[in-house]
Amino acid sequence: MTEQAITLVIGGARSGKSSFAERLAEDSGKKLYYIATAEAHDAEMAARIADHQKRREDRWITIQEPLDLARVVSETAATDRVILVDCLTLWLSNIMCRDGDVEAYCEDLLAALKNIKGPVIFVANEVGLGIVPENKMARDFRDDAGRLNQAVARLAHDVHFMAAGLSLCMKRDGNPQQ
Amino acid sequence: MTEQAITLVIGGARSGKSSFAERLAEDSGKKLYYIATAEAHDAEMAARIADHQKRREDRWITIQEPLDLARVVSETAATDRVILVDCLTLWLSNIMCRDGDVEAYCEDLLAALKNIKGPVIFVANEVGLGIVPENKMARDFRDDAGRLNQAVARLAHDVHFMAAGLSLCMKRDGNPQQ
Amino acid sequence: MTEQAITLVIGGARSGKSSFAERLAEDSGKKLYYIATAEAHDAEMAARIADHQKRREDRWITIQEPLDLARVVSETAATDRVILVDCLTLWLSNIMCRDGDVEAYCEDLLAALKNIKGPVIFVANEVGLGIVPENKMARDFRDDAGRLNQAVARLAHDVHFMAAGLSLCMKRDGNPQQ
């Protein structure tokens, strides 16, 4: 992992994205920062967050940030640290739930990543491989999620697609697999 | 790209299928023909079509054909042209919306492809990787879409799976990746 | 295929999982056992089962087992046989429909696989790559299906991801692809 490397780990629900991303971060030997975008709106979500935290134990410093990713990622990044953002798709959902300006938030994040001072690993859901959703908001959401994944993948040095806890490398050291 | 090569680009919504397919076509150095199966039933669809057209600018000759793909692809194909069909999944949806005979339409297309006079690139959605849809029509649709993708992939020289704007090659020069 | 090899074939609906798994089994030269977890609750399901059986013809011995996979797989396994279990995701659905203890069933199956006496090929659906389902039961189901796929993939020697009838190898001879 080079000093300013950006990594994107995409996949479905329960595909092992977070565990894989945590191993990548831990293998770097750097100080571990976890930026959690999830908010515990209900018991189901709270259980999911607790499950993730339990796995990370005390080796990680956890920062909760549902919205202002651009600022928090910029301020936290450093050459002796690795940041894991889990996950971009919930962040997008947080913005939409508050009627925020998705495009502006995404532009801010991408601008921040171009000047980042240390490595960042993003976890994101791929949500576009099912039947077209019947409601318009879900269709907009999957369009926005797909566009954001593409934009981060363009900046990323490494992109991994996960299924069943295993990864397929789609981009390595800045080179798309062909 | 050989003279009669068939290429299939599959992936989810907003996975970068169309852009990737357009680059493949443009790299061929041949005259560019775009067969659009989309119909602008509403403002959302019209915006999506306009977005795609804007990217292609004037370098492409665009033919709108919602149904009779077999004939239009056959008549347009030529060794100095490359045809991009975008997309097979909307075409299937167009047939179903008109209560057309899906199997007959698919057989006609596959028969046409076996005697095609020039290269064709197909874009198609993979729609079977979500939860089983609750309504029967959506289940039938994803079965038909999956079957069609398999049938075109069998004839194809190259098959690419897209996510986050990146491709994984599943078949190259007629050889499945193993 | 080594004596106790476990293989997992995942993919979406109509992605060619069953056909691919059948070819793997037939290429082994061993006696062919098919463990069908599907139950014909309605005409749609009955047609799907009949379609699968027709393809396998008489070369296979078919065992119908909707629930007790651990026992049936253990009792059937042998070095001169290959077992194809089609599929894990329907099995999970069968357990949930009966309010069974998903965790206990999965633990029993995984324990059985650790002491298995012959090769087993599992087919499973990847169902987590669409939009988050609106109903809680569907969300639980895709979580359970994802966890089960990960657990079986950990034990598996080979894991294949299918789309359009083609496979991408995610793990080979016990080694994850990187």
From TrEMBL, chains A, B, C:
Keywords: ATP-binding, Cobalamin biosynthesis, GTP-binding, Kinase, Nucleotide-binding, Nucleotidyltransferase, Transferase. GTP binds at G11, G12, A13, R14, S15, G16, K17, S18, A36, T37, A38, D86. It catalyses: adenosylcob(III)inamide + GTP = adenosylcob(III)inamide phosphate + GDP + H(+); adenosylcob(III)inamide phosphate + GTP + H(+) = adenosylcob(III)inamide-GDP + diphosphate; adenosylcob(III)inamide + ATP = adenosylcob(III)inamide phosphate + ADP + H(+). GO terms for molecular function: adenosylcobinamide kinase activity; ATP binding; cobinamide phosphate guanylyltransferase activity; GTP binding. The active site is at H52. It holds the Pfam family CobU. It comes from the Bacteria. Coiled coil: none annotated. It is an enzyme of class 2 (transferase). Pathway: Cofactor biosynthesis; adenosylcobalamin biosynthesis; adenosylcobalamin from cob(II)yrinate a,c-diamide: step 5/7; Cofactor biosynthesis; adenosylcobalamin biosynthesis; adenosylcobalamin from cob(II)yrinate a,c-diamide: step 6/7. GO terms for biological process: cobalamin biosynthetic process. Its EC number is 2.7.1.156, 2.7.7.62. Catalyzes ATP-dependent phosphorylation of adenosylcobinamide and addition of GMP to adenosylcobinamide phosphate. Belongs to the CobU/CobP family. This is Bifunctional adenosylcobalamin biosynthesis protein. It comes from Paremcibacter congregatus.
